[in-house]
Amino acid sequence: MANPVFSNSPVFGDPKSQAGPRSGGTVYADSTATHSTVDAATLDQMYGAPAATTRDTGRLTYDDVIMKTGGLLALLVAVGAVTWVVAPGLWILGAIVGLVLGLVNAFKREPSPVLITLYTVAQGVFLGGISAFYEASYPGIVSQAVLGTLAVAASALFVFKSGKVRVTPKFTRWLILAMVGYLVFSLLNVVLMLLNVGGGDFGPLRSGGWGVLIGLFAVGLAAASFIVDFDAIKKGVEGGAPRKLAWAAAFGLIVTLVWLYLEILRILAILRN
């Protein structure tokens, strides 16, 4: 038998090897009966065994996603705290490295735990440094931004679990178009800042009341992105996706969390200004 799975199983073994000792071509009945009893008992034990779970079969589970996301989030916070205290000026390096690794991870066909972990470290350096500068200018703003981020993420999860928002192809297309438009708008704002056009602490397009409205729109996009992420994870678990995709799911959630935190931080700073 070519398949080793069948070859190693007593149920699917070669009948000749299971027969009793031969003498002149005669098979002793008591040996045959003994082997038949063993085979029947083994077969009955297999049928009585509990069904294999998704973890036993190497499939994606909610626990996998929660553990990976929790681990990356803990790493992000730890690196951010160290950067805040030791070298907040490294936030620029963290931003550049995080951007590059984020793009690499986003376009990889297979998730890379190493690259995703390095991305989290880079983002921790970026967030730790930038948060230190915001806190120095606006005391208490970081804790408010963290609470706001957790509140929006929890609300998105609640709305998704309630079933009040369905992730349809139309909803997904709308979200993609809105995010592309917001990205172009943000890049334009950065260019105007570099050219010193229009002034404003956060760029000419992100200051004052207009900046608050744009920030709230971005928070809404991040919340919608969370809902799409949750739906994708649900479909992956129910569809029996490979367990390694838990890294991809965790990466997506971390990206959205970082984006949401930065938007809320900017909104609070504009209001303080």
From TrEMBL:
<dbReference type="InterPro" id="IPR010539">
    <property type="entry name" value="BaxI_1-like"/>
</dbReference>
<keyword id="KW-0472">Membrane</keyword>
<protein>
    <recommendedName>
        <fullName>Bax inhibitor-1/YccA family protein</fullName>
    </recommendedName>
</protein>
<feature type="transmembrane region" description="Helical">
    <location>
        <begin position="172"/>
        <end position="197"/>
    </location>
</feature>
<keyword id="KW-1133">Transmembrane helix</keyword>
<feature type="transmembrane region" description="Helical">
    <location>
        <begin position="209"/>
        <end position="233"/>
    </location>
</feature>
<feature type="transmembrane region" description="Helical">
    <location>
        <begin position="140"/>
        <end position="160"/>
    </location>
</feature>
<feature type="compositionally biased region" description="Polar residues">
    <location>
        <begin position="1"/>
        <end position="10"/>
    </location>
</feature>
<feature type="transmembrane region" description="Helical">
    <location>
        <begin position="90"/>
        <end position="107"/>
    </location>
</feature>
<feature type="transmembrane region" description="Helical">
    <location>
        <begin position="65"/>
        <end position="84"/>
    </location>
</feature>
<keyword id="KW-0812">Transmembrane</keyword>
<feature type="transmembrane region" description="Helical">
    <location>
        <begin position="114"/>
        <end position="134"/>
    </location>
</feature>
<dbReference type="Pfam" id="PF12811">
    <property type="entry name" value="BaxI_1"/>
</dbReference>
<feature type="transmembrane region" description="Helical">
    <location>
        <begin position="245"/>
        <end position="271"/>
    </location>
</feature>
<feature type="region of interest" description="Disordered">
    <location>
        <begin position="1"/>
        <end position="28"/>
    </location>
</feature>
